[in-house]
Amino acid sequence: MSHSRVVVVTGGGDGIGAMVVRRLASEGWSVCVADIDETSATAIAADLTDRGHRVIGVGADVSCEADVERIGEVAETELGALSGWINNAGNTSPSMLLKMEVDAFDSVLAVHARGSFLGVREAARRMVRSESGGAIINVTSSAGLGGTVGQINYASAKGAIIAMTKSAAKELGRYNIRVNAVAPSASTEMTRTIMTNEKFAKTYLSRIALGRFAEADEMSATFSFLLSDDAGYMTGQVLSIDGGTYMVS
Ligand SMILES: NC(=O)c1ccc[n+]([C@@H]2O[C@H](COP(=O)([O-])OP(=O)(O)OC[C@H]3O[C@@H](n4cnc5c(N)ncnc54)[C@H](O)[C@@H]3O)[C@@H](O)[C@H]2O)c1
């Protein structure tokens, strides 16, 4: 990118977000890691700072408006004008539809849907103000594309994120702000859990066209690409990184 390379990664203290933070830092991005688990956010920031990268950690809840505004403020004050923002933070509260409590529905919608909305809005306000354009990435899931069993709250939130991505892309294109979504498959941690159950692992793998789980870098590479000028003519898209598990005609 020709302008500053400053990016916020929500939920960057662990899992997929942490893989993305490490990749972007190694590519020269200045990264603000925002996570409700402040300890993990500051730990990854300290580790990467020790390795010579420019990374800060912020404790924040993405479902809280004031917290998201604070993330934007801290990131720009300490690192410079934002050119990227990744809405990756997520939670789950699974149960079958017939048993699902309203609280379980609301709490998952609050983090994924409201949290992504707040992140997109905060990033866009700052990018519009600096007139330098930028790239926003939202994290959805095959659950949001094709539905799932036992997580109607999560699938609803991820479906909302897809529609939000397209709507924001349409509104923000004229400011040269691109908004895309990625739909990852099992992260390293989840893969480990699946692999401990031989029968489940076999069933799971049989659904993946490539017949194997993702390497960490295969996941983070797509995030890096979508932030880069190489994706300069892409907006409003959903990219699946799932070895061919979910395919749309
Ligand atoms: N792991 C998968 O198989 C998979 C598949 C498809 C999509 N996803 C999506 O990828 C994203 C990352 O998932 P993951 O598997 O790495 O999860 P994870 O649980 O390993 O990490 C999520 C991170 O988000 C943080 N977080 C949770 N609630 C937060 C909040 N309110 N505010 C700020 N931070 C918060 C957590 O502390 C954690 O560090 C999520 O959006 C998830 O829905 C994951």
From TrEMBL:
Q: Name one GO biological process term.
A: fatty acid biosynthetic process
> What sequence ranges are listed for the domain Ketoreductase?
5-185
Q: Which UniProt keywords apply?
A: Oxidoreductase
SUPFAM superfamilies in the record = NAD(P)-binding Rossmann-fold domains
Which is one GO molecular function term here? 3-oxoacyl-[acyl-carrier-protein] reductase (NADPH) activity
User: What EC number(s) has UniProt assigned to this enzyme?
Assistant: 1.1.1.100
Keyword Oxidoreductase in the entry? The reply is yes
Highest taxon listed in the record's lineage:
Bacteria
Similarity comment = Belongs to the short-chain dehydrogenases/reductases (SDR) family.
According to UniProt, the name of this protein is 3-oxoacyl-[acyl-carrier protein] reductase
Q: Which organism is it from?
A: Nocardioides marinisabuli
